[in-house]
Specification:
The protein is mainly alpha-helical. It has one helix and no strands.
Length: 82
Amino acid sequence: MCVDISIDAIRHTINRNTSVCVGLILALGILFTILLVLWMRNYVTKQIRELESSVTAFAALSHGRRDPDELLFTPPDINNQQ
C-alpha cells in the first residue's frame, strides 16, 4: 500500500517532473517560434519586399504617362514553389 514512501518524497518527485515538463515545453515553444520567424522572413517577407520595390519602381516610372505601351511592369523573380 505504499506506506514506506513519504508524501513529501512523492510531492518532490511530482514538482520536479512538472518543472522539467514545463521547461521543455517552453524551450520547444521558443525554438519553434524562432524557426517560424526565420522561415517567414525568408519565404514571405522577403518576397513581399521584392514585390513592393518592383511596384514602387513601376509607379515612379509610369507617373504621368498616358500611352499604355510605355507602361511595362517587370515583376520580380519570386520563387513560390517552396
